[in-house]
Amino acid sequence: MSCDRCGKSLLIDEPVRYVAMLTVQAAYDALEITAKDLARDHAALARDALARAAGMDAMDLEEQVHAVRTFDLCPGCQREVLDNPAGRGQ
Q: Is residue 7 situated within a structural domain?
């Protein structure tokens, strides 16, 4: 088992390991529905969405809405991820 970030051996070179879970999901903000929205052809919009999805892999479709990843980290990388989770400036 090794650190998914730096490759260091875990539980051999390091006495402890950490598990980081990353969840990414689509954000939905409250919408203001207008008369124009209500007048749209919703059946056609649904058909278009289904046609676009027809050629896509089920996993790809699911990950457009919600995805989870798990990473094993050594103590050094755990600290770095906590200090800079978005990896800015690297």
A: no
Residue 39: Cβ-neighbour burial (10 angstroms; 0-12, 13-18, 19+): exposed
**Domain membership of residue 64 as a residue range:** 18-83
Count of domains forming the chain? 1
Tokens matching residue 31 = 């919408």
In a domain, 9, yes or no: no
pLDDT tens per residue, range 12-61: 877 899 999 999 999 987 788 889 989 999 999 999 989 988 888 888 88
- pTM, whole model, 2 decimals? 0.68
Q: Which residue has the tokens 């600290």?
A: 79
